[in-house]
């Protein structure tokens, strides 16, 4: 201080050689401060809490392994904390809440990682610890694990033990546990016990999921009347959702609008929308269960459900139920009733009107009433011009009128409104194909293949387009992918055989044609190719088997029977050949080719019927000349016109098929050609009397409807609610 007598840092007794150090730095740094045991314990508790939070965050992001590792580390640190407290003599002050949190989090992470034995062991350790209050409720989680393991008896045991631990004051918790017990009974097929538990819930704390499962149980038990009563309870369950008017700003205040916009899409409003959507789904499904399509009172039952819904808080669902009724009529093939129901929507709001008109257009298109289909497609478009299904149906009606360019425009507009409308993309590819715009068609089907990876129709169309473009190797590649999806399709196998034959690979062609014949032994062009192949290979007995099959398929075609007889003759079985020719003559007495062969065979075998057959041959030849003269005089000009037209360019879609037909016809003609005069011109070119059903079926444009009739929307679909087991 300034009042001090002695000078600061100066001394008259300074010894010789001592350094001047007024601050005492020569003594070194001060010793570090040591944490007390209590402070160390607090730091360790903070670290454990941090590990628990990190474990929970990792679980929420889906990183379950990291969450488990953090939970294990927190458990190790918590054990070290307890040991440290015991060493410091403060064992009486153990933080039980922290211990409970660590052990519960570890058990949860074991369960999430499906390590069920470890999870059960951790839960048992918590439950048996009498120091933890309300730990008995964790028997619900143990019951959940046993349910996942399908150990239903133990699951029910632990659910009931947990129910005994929960007081009557916690009604929601007791309701959830009872619902879990009911779910286990349903899994065991004990519907009466499940019904008792669900009825108890609906009488105390009714909820949508329990009401829906109660209807399912009544349906399984076959009690239709109680299903109706349960349906009435279901639609009367309050959802607890506030009015939608809260999202409408009360005034033009900017701040109010900002608040409304902020809460309109927050998590709470999303939860409300999800709850409402689930309730509507359950009610619609329950109505379809009450009104099975095969029941004689189907219409009256559906009307009863609609009336009930109209008098409830779900008034907007009445139109959807009417729509489902129309779809059910379609399943029953009752198109008239379906059309009557859908026509009632013409006076509804634009969305329902557009959907109904779309379905009506779909129905009329399937009935091939294309004018009505076009009318209702226009109506659907006028009600909602952005309805891609309506635009697709409109394009289909134009497509069948062969106005492919206009149809392509409608399909393009449908794709602009919905880029994932696969029907429009498929039909656009067909339209381009008909217009011979093969590059554009290929682009459409490649895009469609990216969406529908395993669609055999799309891959078949790609193969067909590549063949039209002359790239047979790519066509074979895509057809091989079709075979991977549908390995038993005989028409695709025949197509592969044809492509390999065109490439000159006879062995591969024989393999595919043989497999096609094995799967579908009625395809004439396959039988023809196989028969010709074995004749070329001099296996006449094998060829005879195939041509005999052709005679069974086309008994009125004399050419197959003549080929069979010729095969017998070429194999040296003249007696069998003679009998076959005689049989042909009995069925076709005016056939000149057959009579010529009979005359020759009878002469060679010195038979007494020679003169008889010679007389018949002369008579038949004379009749044939008279018919040819009449045809020539009456159709000479027409035939000349056809011959002149045949010199032009052929359609690319049929060029490969016509070339193949010409080659096969030449082979068939050469089959019976030899030096003998009676076989010189016996065969004519084969006519294409059989059409591959796969081609025309795929070429048909796909129709589209807002509401589809498929197996996924059947009345028999029964499923439990999503959130049945409480955690």
Short description:
This protein has 727 residues and is mainly α. It contains 33 helices and no strands.
If you had to describe this structure to a student in words, what would you say it looks like?
- Residues 699-710 have a biased composition (Basic and acidic residues).
- It comes from Nothobranchius rachovii.
- Pfam families: TPR_12 (PF13424), TPR_6 (PF13174), TPR_8 (PF13181).
- This protein has helices at 37-60, 64-88, 96-112, 116-128, 139-148, 152-165, 171-188, 191-204, 208-221, 224-235, 254-264, 267-290, 298-310, 317-331, 335-343, 350-366, 370-383, 388-399, 404-417, 422-434, 438-451, 456-468, 472-485, 490-503, 506-519, 524-536, 540-553, 558-570, 574-587, 592-604, 610-645, 652-671, 694-699.
- By secondary structure, it is an all-alpha fold.
- It has 33 helices and no strands.
- The protein has a domain at 345-452: Alpha Horseshoe (Serine Threonine Protein Phosphatase 5, Tetratricopeptide repeat), CATH 1.25.40.
- Helix 12 packs across helix 14.
- The longest helix is centred in the C-terminal third of the chain and has 36 residues, at 610-645.
